[in-house]
Design brief:
Elements lengths: L2 H6 L10 H6 L9 H19 L9 E7 L4 E6 L6 H9 L28 E7 L6 E7 H9 L7 H8 E6 L8 E7 L12 H11 L11 H11 L6 E4 L12 E4 L2 E5 L2 E8 L5 E9 L14 E6 L2 E3 L19 E6 L17 H50 L4 H21 L9 H20 L12 H17 L3 H15 L1
Parallel strand pairs: 1-7, 12-14
Antiparallel strand pairs: 1-2, 2-6, 3-4, 3-6, 4-5, 8-9, 10-11, 11-14, 12-13
Helix pairs in contact: 9-10, 9-11, 10-11
Bound molecules: adenosine-5'-triphosphate and magnesium ion.
Organism: Novosphingobium aromaticivorans (strain ATCC 700278 / DSM 12444 / CCUG 56034 / CIP 105152 / NBRC 16084 / F199)
Protein name: Molecular chaperone HSP90 family-like protein
Pfam family, one: HATPase_c_3
Length: 507
């Protein structure tokens, strides 16, 4: 049977049921904050269009977010192209019919704006285009939508339902040079920790995922921007939340960690990733640091992140499988900016569609994963080496102090001196140039110091110990007792302090 035969017996009219809406809104997004990413993505595309149309300069794209926890309202307003009156209804009631597909815009499925349906009592889109003096709005009654979805007997099809639960309005009073798009969520329900209505949580989230500029606190930023700019347009936005300072990306030279040492980013590694047929698929950068362990989540920079159109796709674990051990992703700070349009985010933008282009990208990222893993592993070995050296040094100094005290019998002295010799050998082994890159001079100096002090104390006959002045038999008794104290004490420095006090008494 060929297609013309099928056509000849008539075309079937597909039935599109209401559950599609459930799939596209409630069921689609796991983290409520992702609705902000969807609306920022739309605004970013509209601002690009406004720039291309000469309505905005390159540095003028702005999104103002207003969050009012008392009225439980969220407004997201951008100064992009907006939507012209004659297209308003058809664009905003269409489902899955994006005119952006194939244009290089970030959105392309035609469903992202529906994400807010699950998180409001009413969801309104309001827009005006340049040259028009009226704005249009379309309001979804989300409560009515939910009751329709719950009603098993309601068998109306999608277009009819959309018609019944949306209202379109026109307002005047807009100046002809205004162009904007507004998303207004009212009656936002409390979900979990109410993050949707927390300006701080929203700012933290968007600073990570949105196309906002790097912070001036990050010295590596100009270098990263220059590399990115040489391959692609950088199109950053001014995003404000409740009128606060515009958001910037969370990277900084030094990021504080509560109760720990700060994370210091100091050196940037770039990798250009070729696509399967020769172009450039992506640019990855990784900022090296001390690799002391998994990066604290509070820094908001943990993990190798993916970005398309400078908006993050997925979360911080998206690329963890490029590391020899997935845990090293949490030790990594970096981004992969993807330019190849054949590497396609999935509908939820929480991962990419599996295809040969994604596989190629991951293959090229694997050496970077191995390089980071080597740094993580050598850094933990190096930390252990330094710790072992310091412990040996402390043990040597403690024994030398005991010898310098002059409180031990000659054979016990020999014993302790031998222990110092052994410790010095251990220190020398730990400080060999092979496994020692930093602080070699300091460690050498420590070894030399221990050796000289040991030699001085074992050679010298003169001691300031009060035992020197005692009759040989009495002195031997004291020495034997002191040796016993050292032998039996759990804590040698406490034992030494005790003997110091006894010596001071008998002096
Ligand atoms: N801020 C905005 N400014 C102007 N037009 C907008 C804006 N937001 C949405 N639109 C219009 O509404 C359409 C649908 O938006 P929606 O987010 O649902 O889909 P999309 O962005 O095209 O694709 P995706 O589902 O991948 O996000 C867009 O294609 C665009 O034409
Ligand atoms: Mg979209």
């Amino acid at each position: 049977m060929n297609l013309s035969e099928v056509a000849s017996i008539g075309t079937a009219r597909p039935v599109i049921g209401k559950d599609v809406l459930e799939l596209l809104s409630t069921a689609m997004y796991v983290d409520p904050l992702t609705i902000y990413r969807e609306y920022v993505q739309n605004a970013a595309d509209a601002i690009d269009d406004a720039r291309a149309a000469g309505l905005l300069r390159a540095d003028e794209g702005a999104i103002a977010i207003t969050i009012d926890p008392t009225t439980r309202t969220i407004t997201i307003r951008d100064n992009g192209v907006g939507i012209a009156s004659d297209a308003f209804q058809s664009i905003l009631t269409a489902i899955g019919a994006s005119s952006k597909r194939g244009t290089g815009a970030r959105g392309f499925r035609g469903v992202g704006r529906l994400s807010g349906l699950a998180y409001a009592r009413e969801l309104t889109f309001r827009a005006s285009a340049a040259g028009e003096t009226q704005a249009h709005s379309l309001t979804w009654d989300c409560r009515a939508l939910r009751s329709v979805l719950r009603d098993f007997d309601d068998r109306r099809e999608l277009p009819e339902i959309v018609g019944a639960i949306t209202v379109i309005d026109e307002t005047s009073g807009v100046t002809a040079d205004e162009h904007f798009f507004e998303v207004i969520l009212t009656g936002v329900p409390r979900i979990g920790d109410d993050r949707l209505l927390s300006p701080a949580a929203v700012s933290d989230y968007l600073a990570q995922v949105a196309p906002v500029p790097m912070s001036s606190q990050f010295t590596l930023a100009p270098d990263i921007d220059a590399q990115l700019g040489s391959l692609n347009d950088i199109r950053r936005l001014v995003i404000t939340v409740n009128g606060e300072a515009p958001l910037t990306r969370p990277f900084a030279d030094e990021m504080p960690i509560e109760g720990g040492r700060p994370l210091c980013l100091r050196e940037c590694r770039f990798i250009e990733i070729p696509s399967v047929d020769g172009g450039i698929a992506a640019l990855a950068w990784v900022a090296h640091h001390d690799y002391e362990g998994a990066i604290h989540a509070s820094t908001n920079v943990r993990g190798l992140r993916a970005r398309v159109g400078d908006i993050q796709v997925g979360d911080s674990n998206l690329f963890e499988d490029i590391f020899p051990e997935t845990r090293f992703n949490a030790w990594t700070v970096g981004e992969v900016h993807i330019f190849d349009p054949r590497i396609v985010p999935n509908g939820r933008r929480d991962d990419f569609e599996r295809n040969v282009h994604l596989a190629n990208l991951k293959n090229h990222l694997a050496p970077l994963g191995r390089e980071v893993a080597v740094r993580c592993r050598t850094s933990s070995r190096e930390r252990k080496r330094i710790r072992d050296f310091e412990l040996a040094h402390l043990a040597a100094l403690e024994n030398i102090a005991i010898l310098e005290q002059g409180s031990l019998a000659p054979n016990a002295c020999e014993h302790v001196a031998l222990a110092v010799d052994m410790t010095v050998m251990k220190m020398e082994k730990l400080a060999t140039p092979d496994n020692l890159l930093n602080g070699e001079g300091r460690e050498r100096a420590a070894i030399e110091d221990v050796k000289t002090r040991l030699e001085t104390v074992t050679r010298s006959t003169a001691s300031s110990s009060p035992l020197e002045r005692m009759a040989p038999e009495r002195r031997a008794n004291y020495e034997e007792m002191f040796s016993l104290i050292y032998e039996c004490a759990a804590n040698r420095s406490a034992a030494k302090a005790l003997i110091d006090r006894i010596l001071a008494k008998i002096a």
